[in-house]
Amino acid sequence: MGIVHGRSVLAAGLGITVELIDLLRYPAGVELRLALTAYGHAAQQARYETRPLTDPGDPSPRWSFLRTHVRAGDLAGEADPYQAPILSTGTTRLIDFRTTPRYWIDGIPAPVSLTVTVEWARIGLAATSSTIEIGPVPHALP
Fold this sequence. Notes:
Layout: E1 2-5, E2 8-13, E3 16-26, E4 29-38, H1 40-49, E5 67-72, E6 75-78, E7 81-83, E8 87-89, E9 97-99, E10 102-106, E11 112-120, E12 125-134
Antiparallel strand pairs: 1-3, 2-3, 3-4, 4-9, 4-10, 5-6, 5-11, 7-10, 8-9, 11-12
């Protein structure tokens, strides 16, 4: 295992920031860790979109969430969190909403360019793509 990419901003909008916390490279794949922080109106909308549904029989409530699409060479698809996002709201006067989803991406060869597209239109984050260069696993045995 090795960290092959550290913290960087992937997307920023009015009151919204999505950061790459880090990217961990394993022989079997890549762990992608993100953090979305929202303030003001975007945070209110994010809290509304991720609220617990109190009446499972009511078809009108809808959830939305940070969508993450990943492309590496010929491989592409929607990334699903392998660990449920950690949500926090109102933790400080400055942060109104924060989620830290983690994703597992199987079988990514190294080195490779990984294109990550993040989007959450319902809170005001338009689709934004970033390219991350992934090198070999540091200190890996041949």
